[in-house]
Here is the input.
Amino acid sequence: MALIRLIHIKVKPDEAAQAERIWKEDCAPLMIRQKGCISEKLLKCADSPGEFISYAEWETQADIDRYRGSADHKKIRSDALQFSGAEAFSKVYNIVS
Here is the structure.
């Protein structure tokens, strides 16, 4: 059964367009090419500018762990750190039904 990894991201509202562009053009392509990454989508909060969720479906926890140790993950983290005051955290969920 696949795992869902959600990364909650918050940037300043005036940096939201830049964050969205970087995620779409730089980060998402790196994630989707990882072994075990089935899909990746970026969700933009309709009620709070600057809030996003990266929704990624993975085959196994081992695939997530391998990705988290990769150079691609380091690149994504460095892209995210360019935003002053940016907040991010991730959690992994099992699909129940």
Q: What stands out?
A: The chain is about 35% helix and 35% strand.
